[in-house]
Amino acid sequence: MKILYLNADRGIPVLGDKGASVHVREFVTALASAGHEVVLVCASLGEGNAPPPGQLLMLAPEASDAELLTECEAAGLPGSALSERLTRRELARLAYDRTLVPRVREALSRIGFVPDIVYERQALFHAAGATLARELGVPRLLEVNAPLVLEQERFRGLFLKTLALHAEQLSFRGAGAIFAVSQEVAAYISGTGISPTLIHTVPNGVDLDRFRPSADGLAVRARHGLGADRVIGFIGSFKPWHGVGFLADAFALMAQKTEGIRLLCVGEGPELENTRAAIAAYGLEARATFVGRIPHAEIPAYLGAMDVSLAPYLPDPDFYFSPLKVVESLACGTPVIAAGLGQLAHLVDHGRTGFLFAPGEAPDLVARVLELLDDKERHGAMRLAARARAEQDFGWNRVVERMSVEAQRLVARKCAA
């Protein structure tokens, strides 16, 4: 099939290191590997990683002050609202969405690409994908990775909530099939009035060829002076909800109970310096290594250097994530110890591929880590089981297969009509 992949979120640079960026690249790569011809249209290109196969077209947001003023008037706001950073940013998203359809059509015409389907990653304040698919006369599949309106309001602030919800509904209702990244996201979508028959829960995937137990962790250990110590690791963007402050407290407790254990942290973000400071306050600088940003292509080697990978998310009744780092860890044969929240309880087989601990309970996390590291035979068995589970359930090829089945069904129905 000829697939137009639309990523209108400027906060997801396709070549960047964010989990969402990785998701876009690896899904498009899997589509190409399955024999599909893909054109990826994005709002932001970014840098740091190789582009996925297929044609990559960046249509950057370019709203002028006049266009923003038009959006301001359409929203019933005074022109002075443009001086507010949050409001201006939201109006810019609306302006981008308003112009996106003709820009995409012109770009497709220029390269002579006529898609069979539109596959879109849901973006806040965006509904143009539904209009685009309707004008092209092709089915549209929508991928939803979070309840974006609620997420924006909770973590970053949201002024034009009514318009955001309106765009979200237009986007949901303009899809022939919706792929939710977790059961919690699926429940959110159905709670907005969308028929559950249109919603498919498909967790994040992993490239099983690149993420495998043969990844060379010895070089990473040598580079960072980890030696033969037991290494527990964290990979992430150091956001508040990732629980990195909690991890620092848990590691201090761990260090009191055992020697020869090290903490390896990969990534950067708003909580990085606070985490460093917490480790320093415990006097554990010599036992903790922070390596900062690492290109995604090197992540398998870092997972290979870890004896255990941690997902220490904080307690959250609305937890809806499907963390890439968990399935990537499993694919590398690195057991995962994760908070027992949401989809994490489905990704990690408790006692077989890792352990689940009570969210926010440092003694429970510590007990699980030490229980595993002190039992070499069980640790070895978990490594094998982790890889086997990834091969069975989490390869990107399986995600693409599910998408392809729905796409072919929608195309066939369109042709029959």
The total number of structural domains is 2
CATH topology of the largest domain: Rossmann fold
Considering DSSP H and I runs of 4 or more, what fraction of the residues is helical? Answer: 40-55%
CATH level 1 class label of the largest domain: Alpha Beta
Judging by the overall fold, what is the CATH architecture of the largest domain? 3-Layer(aba) Sandwich
The CATH superfamily of the largest domain is known as: Glycogen Phosphorylase B
Order of helices and strands: EHEEHHEHEHHEHEHEHEHEHEHEHEHHH
Mean pLDDT: 94
Shape: globular
| Rg (C-alpha, Å) | 22 Å
Strand content: 5-15%
Number of helices: 16
Distance between the termini: 19 Å
Low-confidence stretches: none
Class by alpha and beta content: alpha/beta
Detailed description of the structure:
This protein is an alpha/beta fold and 417 residues long. It has 2 domains: 2-205 and 396-416, Glycogen Phosphorylase B (Rossmann fold, 3-Layer(aba) Sandwich); 217-393, Glycogen Phosphorylase B (Rossmann fold). Helices cover 46% and strands 14% of the residues. The protein has a 7-stranded parallel β-sheet with strand order 3-2-1-4-5-6-7, sandwiched between helices. A 6-stranded parallel β-sheet has the order 10-9-8-11-12-13, with helices on both faces. Helix 2 crosses helix 3.
